[in-house]
Amino acid sequence: MKFASISNKNAFLIILCLFLGAVLTSCGYHRAERSAELPSWIKSIYIAPWQNRSNELLLAAWITDELRQEFLRGSSLSLAPREEADVILEGQVKEVATSGLSYVRYDQAVERRIDVICTATLKDRRTNKTLWTTPDILREESFLVGKEATQTEALKNKALKKLSRDVAELIYHHIGWNY
How far apart are CA 112 and CA 137, in angstroms? Predict the structure, then answer.
């Protein structure tokens, strides 16, 4: 049995084509730095604990924590105490609603959806002037219904934590773009 041989030149061209194909089609995702688009006087930020007008008691705390993590991971803005920060980021969970998404029967959901509406505002600490604000931020996430209530609650909390990360990332990116 005879195998076709590939010359060194052809092997090099094949490897080069594969490499270029991988590079040109790769995602290229990276965490964009947004603070460069903010005014130069903004060097530090205080992220105030979020207000919560919903019945999901931990949601506001989760969003506050995720926002702080987002700014620690990806920003040249430093987190600072309220009295020392250049700007203050405040937010509020305005509404949370849960509804059935898919059913086994008309009265038995197997998947539910949770909708969250939030708002956020960035203010100059010295003047209390609003620098940036959001219209209502609506985010939704689905979760499965467990066999027991405690299992369903754990799955709902997992969905709420994902929503918290999504809201934090959205706000982080929008502050730089919309300022």
Answer: 20
Per-residue model confidence as pLDDT tens digits over 109-119: 899 999 999 99
Q: Which two tokens stand for residue 154?
A: 């754990």
pLDDT per position as a tens digit, 5-25:
556 665 555 564 555 455 445
Q: How many domains does the chain have?
A: 1
Cβ atoms of residues 80 and 44 within 8 Å: yes
- Taking alpha carbons only, the member of 171, 157, 178, 158 closest to residue 38 is 178
3-state helix, strand, coil split of the chain in percent (to 5) is 35, 30, 30
Does residue 132 lie in a domain region? Answer: yes
Other C-beta atoms closer than 10 Å to the C-beta of 132 total 18
The whole domain housing 167 covers: 8-178
